[in-house]
Structure formats: C-alpha cells, structure tokens
Specification:
- The protein is of the alpha/beta class and 291 residues long.
- Helix content is 64%, strand content 12%.
- It has seven helices and five strands; from the N terminus they run H-E-H-E-H-E-H-E-E-H-H-H.
- Strands 3-2-1-4-5 form a five-stranded mixed beta sheet, sandwiched between helices.
- Helix 2 links the parallel strand 1 and strand 2.
- Helix 1 runs antiparallel to helix 7 and helix 4 packs across helix 7.
- About 4% of the residues have low confidence.
C-alpha cells in the first residue's frame, strides 16, 4: 500500500502536469482562432479560382498542358502526406498517416513528399530512402506551398510520377477532424467542383471574356491552382491540429483533476489509518504501564 508521502508526491506531480495541459489548452485556443481566420480568408479565393477553372475547362476545346493529361502509367504515384510538426493532439497525426498507408496498399509503387515533422518521421520509418520534406510551421506557408508545388510539378512533367495525391486532414468541426485523400493531378472538371447541380442553383451568370485567349489563361491558372490547393490544405491542417490539441489538452486536464481527487481520498484514508494506528499504540502503551 502506498504511503502518505508517496501519494502526496503523486498528487504534486499530477498538479504540475495539469498546469502544463491547462496552459497548452489556452495556447491552442488562441492559435486556433488565428488559424481559422486565415483559413476563412483563403476560402473566397479558392472558390473563385475553382469556379473559373471549371468554366475554362468546359469552354476551351483542348489545352496543351501536362496537368490535363494522364501521367506516365509505369511511374510511381506521388503522395503528399501532410501532418503537423508536433504531437500531443490525440490521434490527429496517426489518423493521417494511417490514411496514407491505406492508399499506398492499392498502389504498386509510391514516391513520398512529406509536409510536417510527423509526416517526415512516418516516411522515414518506412525506409524508402531519400524523399523531399518540408516543416508545416515554416513561415511564410505560401513559400513552402510554392516549393512543394514546384517539386511535384517538375517530377510529374518529367515522368517521375504518374499523378499527385494529397493525404491531409479536413476540419469537419471543432470536435472532429477527418483525414482526406484527394487526387490533385491530372485535373478534370469534376475535381474542381462547380458542376451542373451547383450551376442550376446559382442561376445565370454573365459572360466572361478571357484575354488573350481562354487557353492561355487556363495554362497560367493551372499551376496556381495546384499551389493554392496545397497552401489551403496547409492552413486547414494547422486549424485541425490546434482543434485536436485543444480537445486533447482539455481531456487531459479533466482526467488529471479526476486522478487528483481519487489520490486525495486515498491519501486522506492512508493518513487517517496512520493516525488511528498511532493512537492505538499510545493507548496500548498507556494500558501496559497502568497494569
């Protein structure tokens, strides 16, 4: 049975841990507001870009751009695994890496691109050799997105990979973050959204003229689409991570409080038992002297 001193030390240790988890919870709550704000500010641009590309692909006859053509079938699949740089967020990072593992099972060969330290560690454990990696917390994120987009574009156009697939986290709500696997390249009109159902609900739109030609505008926008899609996924991963960390630290703080209450009861019982034992010894000694 644990002594009063042992229980007191465990309670002190749990209180210190509770202070840390409470501080991390407050930090995550502050950071998620900024991450959500950045994500919401990027949504109108992403929606407009997707709508414009959808209209352009539907309007032009043919465009000589690699993103609209199938890749080399003999080449491996290019998989971008995007996680956070840190842990202490429950199963957030492991859910993303598990989704990547599930996708890879159906692919004959894979070339990895890791974004985030946890994704880098995941790919390193697979023993695939050299691979490209970027930290998620690097600033500015748009520069990381440009470097990543340039790398995967170069590999795709040169025939080193046959497609570009992104495995990242999608923020459903503050309580739920879901891993998502998306095919980014080759691009089709269906991948961009804005189908007939949406057009029917949106009503008629004015005619738009593209200069010097729709084909030229489309060829310029396609690389920007890939770049901004990766940038938007980085912002969403950031927001999802802080939401998961907020929930994990809140649960840890509450669990620490429950353990402290349980150990406090045990400590009080042990202390009461020690006092009772001392009283019995004193009474027994007094009775022995009086005999």
């Amino acid at each position: 049975m644990a002594t009063v001193k042992d229980l007191r030390e465990r309670i002190r240790s749990l209180k210190n841990t509770q202070q840390i988890t409470k501080a991390m919870k407050q930090v995550a709550a502050a950071k998620i507001r900024r991450a959500e704000m950045a994500q919401k500010q990027a949504r109108p641009y992403a929606a407009t870009l997707s709508e414009m590309l959808h209209d352009l692909i539907a309007a032009v006859g043919s465009v000589d751009h690699p993103f609209l053509k199938p890749g080399t079938q003999e080449a491996p699949s290019g998989v971008v695994v995007m996680t956070a740089d840190k842990g202490l967020a429950g199963a957030f990072n492991s859910n993303v890496t598990r989704a990547a593992e599930i996708y890879v099972r159906g692919a004959s060969s894979v070339t990895y691109y890791a974004v985030g330290n946890k994704a880098r560690n995941f790919v390193r454990r697979l023993g695939v050799g050299e691979f490209a990696a970027w930290p998620l917390s690097a600033q500015p994120k748009i520069q990381v997105a440009r470097e990543l987009a340039a790398k995967v574009t170069e590999d795709f156009t040169s025939g080193k990979i046959r497609d570009i697939v992104l495995v990242s986290s999608r923020m459903v709500s503050m309580m739920q973050q879901r891993p998502e696997t998306r095919a980014l390249v080759p691009i089709t009109a269906g991948d961009l959204g804005g189908g007939d159902a949406e057009d029917a609900g949106a009503g008629p739109r004015g005619a738009v003229e593209f200069s010097p030609s729709p084909e030229f505008v489309l060829s310029q926008l396609l690389p920007k689409y890939l770049e901004f899609t990766l940038f938007s996924a980085m912002l969403e991963t950031d927001a999802s991570f802080f939401a998961a960390q907020l929930l994990a630290m809140n649960n840890a703080t509450e669990n620490a409080g429950k353990l402290i209450d349980e150990l406090t009861i045990k400590m009080n019982n042990a202390r009461q038992a020690a006092i009772t034992k001392e009283l019995l010894e004193v009474v027994s000694g007094a009775e022995a002297l009086s005999v």
